[in-house]
Design goal:
13% of the residues lie in helices and 42% in strands. By secondary structure, the protein is mostly beta strands. Helix 3 packs parallel to helix 5. The radius of gyration is 59 Å and the shape is elongated.
């Protein structure tokens, strides 16, 4: 056995017979022959068992790498053997044609592919036995253009108003000999290359082959220009390359009104329908108003693309201007209807009784509503004759607002009478009566309706006031307990007076009514506690008694111990509850009486 130099770092190396074992070391040593082991090696080595060598990490890694390489070689050999016949098969020209949507194939300098070498010689021999290689097969390949045209622009949603100008971008890369087409809705060709197919002076093409700019421009946009605009490049037998732009045209509102005539006349009690059909892009909202007062949404109804305002059972108060307004984000449009309601006169008066005195000028007033305008006359009950328009006694007047007046100069006793305001037109006649009197006005009660007393006996202090041009001289008070049910016997009135008024107190002079205002007082007793009473007051002057007032109700309560409020106070919660119950009893009684 010859001596050999080795460099051994981690493994054990056989140096002789099995009996001599294994020598391990990390430095370069001399392996001895049969004569023995070199002392230098022995001094720098260690004895290892065969089992420890097998478990060495480096040995295991090398073994795994060798095994994996063998597996890969065997698998490759099997795959190449199965593919060999197909590789030798000649493809048809259609199969060799490259689709534009696919990546261009890599072409070699030879028309045929280089032969594939099998890792297994036996497999290769079997292939050669099945198909003999006839040599290179000439194949005609149509080599496509180096670059496929691409449209770089992205489809846009373009919003424009009428008469605006818009542009549709179309930037093309690597156009080559292909042609760019512009279409509208895929049905109308606008441009083929630089040739304008659809003749429209508003359309033009900005063509710059240097930078691939094929932008389309549209001036004076109209509503029917809305739609899709397509820039495209076609390949025979392939899907076109294209970009699509969407144009949305905003249109201000327009209104189709019905009836067409803006002014219409209807009879009282009829039905009116005003139509307001609004169009626009986006669809407009509609609102109605009359004489600057807006109608609520529940006052009109939708009717197709517009709205109808319907007025049922029209009255004179429905006369006026009705405005329909349509609004969207572009603009606003309005139409106005003028409605005239034809109706017979309607006469109103503020005061049916006028209290006056001798020697003053008095004016009677009535308001007349009518369409067409009514004729107005004044008559008096005494002779039922029409009062002349202007005399030294009477003056009549009529203004544009429908107010009619009769002025009586220097009133005397013969002028105290009933006067009638009579209005007429082609649709009817109506009148109202005004009474001119000199007796006092109806008394107005000023006392509280509930009273609390610290007393052993119930009583009620009544106060009132009246208006009279002539001094009042007497008063009379009537009172009785309120009848609570119909089965109860009728309750008679108790009367205080007539009582002469020796010292009447003049409170003030009412310039509007031109009358003096007088006050009066009276104490009512005996009465029962917590009982509802009604009272009436009449006052007399030189021309007669006033008419009785509507029944006034009151109740007297006994103040509880410790009650510190005034005799007319209702501050405590208990007082309020009692007052509410009293009022409720009065209401129930009034309902049964009616």
């Amino acid at each position: 056995m010859t001596t050999t130099k080795v460099k051994n770092e981690d493994c054990c190396i056989s140096v002789g017979s099995p009996e001599e074992g294994l020598v391990c070391g990390s430095e370069e040593g001399v392996l001895p022959g049969e004569g023995g082991i070199d002392e230098r090696v022995k001094s720098r080595s260690r004895l290892c068992s065969p089992f420890s060598s097998i478990l060495s990490t480096t040995s295991l890694m090398w073994m795994l790498l060798i095994f994996t390489s063998c597996c890969i070689i065997l698998m490759s050999s099997s795959s190449l053997s199965s593919l060999a016949p197909a590789v030798r098969t000649t493809r048809s020209p259609q199969q060799q044609t490259h689709h534009p949507s696919q990546s261009p194939p890599a072409f070699s300098s030879s028309a045929t592919s280089p032969p594939l070498r099998s890792a297994n010689l036996n497999d290769q021999n079997e292939i050669n036995n099945e198909t003999e290689d006839p040599g290179p097969v000439p194949v005609k390949v149509e080599k496509p253009a180096n670059n496929t045209p691409v449209i770089l622009s992205i489809g846009q949603e373009i919003v424009a108003r009428e008469n605006d100008s818009v542009s549709f971008p179309c930037e093309v890369k690597d156009l080559g000999e292909f042609v760019v087409l512009w279409r509208k809705e895929m049905s109308r060709i606008l441009y083929a290359g630089t040739l304008q197919v659809w003749k429209d002076a508003r359309i033009r093409l900005s063509n710059n082959n240097a930078n691939g700019n094929f932008n389309l421009h549209l001036n004076g946009v109209k509503e029917d220009d809305a739609g899709e605009y397509v820039c495209m490049i076609s390949y025979p037998g392939t899907t076109p390359v294209l970009v699509t732009h969407h144009l949305r045209v905003l249109v201000p509102p327009t209104i189709d009104q019905t009836p067409k005539h803006p002014r219409l006349a209807v009879r009282k009690g009829e039905e009116v329908v005003l139509g307001c059909k609004a169009k626009g892009i986006p669809p407009p909202s509609v609102r109605w108003r009359k004489n600057r007062i807006e109608y609520g949404r529940d006052s009109w109804s939708d009717a197709g693309e517009g709205t109808n305002l319907t007025i049922w059972n029209v009255t004179r108060k429905d006369t006026g201007s009705y405005v329909c307004t349509a609004t969207n984000e572009v603009g606003e449009s309005t139409v106005t209807f003028k409605v005239d309601v034809l109706y017979p006169p309607e006469v109103e008066v503020d005061n049916r009784i006028i209290h006056t005195g001798v020697g003053i000028d008095e004016t009677l007033t009535c308001r007349v509503y009518a369409e067409p305008p009514a004729d107005v006359i004044w008559t008096r009950e005494r002779d039922s004759k029409q009062i002349p328009n202007s005399t030294d006694k009477f003056i009549t007047h009529r203004d544009s607002q429908g107010e009619a007046t009769l002025k009586i100069l220097n009133v005397n006793q013969e002028d105290f009478d009933n006067y009638t305001c009579l209005a007429s037109n082609t649709y009817g006649v109506q009148s109202e009566r005004i009474e001119l009197v000199a007796f006092p006005s109806t008394a107005r009660i000023k006392s509280r309706d509930n009273l609390w007393l610290h007393s052993d006996h119930a009583y009620y202090d009544l106060s009132w006031e009246v208006a009279s041009y002539t001094a009042v001289t007497k008063y009379q008070v009537r009172y009785r307990r309120v009848q609570m049910n119909e089965t109860e016997e009728e309750i008679h009135w108790n009367t205080i007076g007539p009582i002469d008024i020796e010292r009447s107190r003049q409170v003030t002079f009412d310039r509007q009514d031109r009358n003096f205002v007088y006050q009066g007082e009276a104490r009512i007793h005996p009465i029962d506690w917590e009982t509802v009473y009604e009272v009436q007051v009449e006052v007399e002057n030189a021309f007669g008694w006033s008419r009785p007032n509507e029944a006034f109700h009151f109740t007297v309560f006994s103040a509880p111990p410790g009650y510190s409020g005034s005799s007319s106070s209702l501050s405590s919660p208990v007082n309020g509850i009692l007052a509410f119950l009293t009022s409720l009893l009065i209401l129930i009684h009034s309902s049964f009486s009616r």
